[in-house]
Amino acid sequence: MYDNLLANVPTDLWIGGKWRKSSDNSRFDVIDPATERKIASVANATVEDAKAALDAADAAFEGWAKRKPRERGEILRKCYELIMRDAERFAKLITLENGKALPDSRGEVAYAAEFFRWYAEEAVRNLGSISTAPASGARIVAQHKPAGIAVLVTPWNFPAAMATRKIGPALAAGCPVILKPASDTPLTMLALMPVLEEAGVPAGVVNVIPSRSSGKVVGHMLHDPRVRVVSFTGSTEVGRKLLHEAADNILKPAMELGGNAPFIVFDDADIDAAIDGAMIAKMRNMGEACTAANRFYVHEKVHDEFAKKLTDKMKSLKMGNGLDEGVNLGPLVNKDGRDKVIELVDDAVKKGAKVLAGGKLPEGPGFFYPATVLTNVSDDSKMLNEEIFGPVASIQTFTSEDEAIKRANDTEYGLVAYLYTKDLSRGMRVSEKLDFGMIGLNRGLVSDPAAPFGGTKQSGLGREGAHEGMMEFMETQYVSVSW
Ligand code: NAD
């Protein structure tokens, strides 16, 4: 079954519309996290290869930027259609290299494709402005131009969507890109390249260079004067490093970094709706999402009901190979990811947490971790300050609105917060006091190509999706005119 899936998946570098080996012929392995079996060996880009990708992107820039916005939009629309035509193939490939269960992968493919459809529509909405300067009477003509070559660096947790969320707006804006996908999951993006070519994306406009030497390869590109944008999704630690490097060349940075999302359930919430939302906010992608609910704060009056219902739902999940029908909990992406979850749960349990579900490792092979619910989690538990990135719900209680807000905001991160209440005025009041870039109010999912996705504080800079996402790849030029 796997071999069929992998038969036509490219494993070389995609540079200037051609497949190439790496300059030193080195390769690295990709592992199926459900079986720990090697599934592919992928070309490992070097600095020489990065130079070739820069040359290809540079050669493609002028032609792509000059294409009429409608033409760029139509090519993007075609990308959307062709991805949806091949949706099941992409979903299986994502499951194979990332581990997530097929329903999650199917959701990701639809979400990933939607960035092409949305930006097909935005490509023709590059609006400028004209006004009269109050003092001089000159005309102020402001317009937005493509910024230049964009270097894109993406994580393994959404191998398709984290990349299309950058490629779609960059192409709509008129910028060529060089993508360095995560080394755990390079196959999905490589498999996408023939599809983009079929849709009409010209050679050199999108280049993909997987590499195990990411520091060197990305570092080289960020110091090339032709590069003008760096768009990164990943950990805050690596984002900070790239921001330092971006400073040398004064690049436009877009940084989608880590999160530590609170999920607040007030005593007037619809508890069943809150459970449905909690399952999405916690369990989409087995908890391996920057938006994953990391800390549940439940009003003490409804704590027992919430904990019981969440435990029942978590116990009902079927863990197994994500490719098998009926499975909705796949393995974590790799051993390090699972070891981190084990360490955080052990720490919480040592500090007094009570295990209501899960918590015990299954027999191997595969990097599986069961759906786990913890209550009585003490304030000094590490999992309250670090991303769990696994299927573990940690529940604490609160008694007043002010206390819930204070504790929710008590983190260096500011990506997303969730809250459930039937009182909409409370919902809006609390939302405004929460220091997060995104709020799920009676919703466990905020990701939407039409919405500005992004965080405050250590969770990042800039926004992806919506019109704002395209502006990350544009420079504003203003012409002062007398006529
Ligand atoms: P990571 O930071 O380890 O890696 C992300 C990417 O950066 C990978 O492609 C990696 O190869 C590359 N990289 C690593 N070191 C580098 C360096 N020195 N120079 C250049 N590139 C380098 O993150 P990860 O483990 O792949 O992903 C998980 C993290 O991503 C979590 O913190 C999660 O919250 C975050 N994330 C954020 C968002 C968001 O939109 N805010 C979305 C998904 C994931």
Task: Write structural notes for this entry.
The protein is an alpha/beta fold and about 475 residues long. It has 2 domains: about 5-255 and about 460-480, 3-Layer(aba) Sandwich (Aldehyde Dehydrogenase, Chain A, domain 1), CATH 3.40.605; about 260-450, Aldehyde Dehydrogenase, Chain A, domain 2 (3-Layer(aba) Sandwich). About 40% of the residues lie in helices and about 20% in strands. It has 15 helices and 22 strands. Strands 14-15-16-13-12-18-19 form a 7-stranded mixed beta sheet, sandwiched between helices. Helix 5 runs parallel beside helix 6 (about 160-175) and helix 10 crosses helix 11. It is globular and about 70 Å long. It starts with a helix and ends with a strand. The mean pLDDT is about 95.
CATH topology of the largest domain: Aldehyde Dehydrogenase, Chain A, domain 1
Strand coverage percent: 15-25%
User: What bound compounds does this protein have?
Assistant: nicotinamide-adenine-dinucleotide
Distance between the termini: 69 Å
SS-based class: alpha/beta
CATH homolog superfamily of the largest domain: Aldehyde Dehydrogenase, Chain A, domain 1
Relative helix content: 25-40%
Question: Can you tell me the overall shape?
Answer: globular
CATH class of the largest domain: Alpha Beta
Main beta-sheet strand count, sense and barrel state: 7 strands, mixed
Radius of gyration: 23 Å
The CATH architecture assignment of the largest domain turns out to be 3-Layer(aba) Sandwich
The side-by-side strand order for the widest beta sheet comes to 14-15-16-13-12-18-19
Please, how many helices? 15
Report low-confidence residues grouped into runs of 5 or more. Answer: none
Mean pLDDT: 97
How many discrete structural domains? 2
Please give the number of β-strands. Answer: 22
